[in-house]
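Hi V.,

You were right to ask for the full record rather than a summary. Here it is.
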Amino acid sequence: MPEVIQHFKLVMMFISGRARGTQQIVVKLEKPSAEVSDLWSGTVFFEGEDRGANLVIDMQQKFELEGLYWFQIMLGADQLTRLPFRLIYERVGLPNLRS
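Predicted structure:
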């Protein structure tokens, strides 16, 4: 399969609840081969209760394998959630133009 470069936005919205202070956010990518790599990291400040924080991240990723990828969202050492992305490779042939 030829590599595919995909541009996308990752939007994360957090509500503080009991959390207070600065926390590290890490986005990891798990490939279909089970290899995991860090894609992005940053910090967010939680004020507590109903106060929140929103992150909008412009991303560009090169995909080299067909299959299921997982974007893992980490808050500190804890995994908050995972987002699936399935890449399906289909060859498209040219129409037969015989006369």
